[in-house]
Task: structure prediction
Amino acid sequence: MTDAPFRVIVVEDDEDVALYVQTILRRRLSCEVEVLHSADGYEEREAGFDPEVVLTDLELPGRGGYELLGDIRARRTDLAIVVMTAHAGGEYAERAERLGADGYLAKPLSSKDLVAMVERLARAQRGEAPVEGD
Result:
């Protein structure tokens, strides 16, 4: 088991939501968090940061979350990707799953669900066992 912090990229155009996610992950899991407010420049940020988990909104300016998800998955099958959306419909989760998402979080985000999902996926990325109670 490594003591290095989990690395997470958050792609979210709503600055308040992005700050909320960043704050929760830093405080509760001591994550290193990079935030992008659109998918522009994602590939460069990923290459320089090497995240274990990517959290992306589905509705983004320009290249949307589904397109970003597909682009990431075409290059990286090993990266954990979680989609976040305010749309409470099974079709959104199903489409994201078909495109290769590892998880789905409905907005408004529950801090408990956010932390549990990121920790579970980041540990799996590192080959670490889940923490007790998972």
Summary: The mean pLDDT is 93. The longest helix spans residues 111-126. Helices lie at 15-29, 42-49, 65-75, 90-98, 111-126. The radius of gyration is 14 Å.
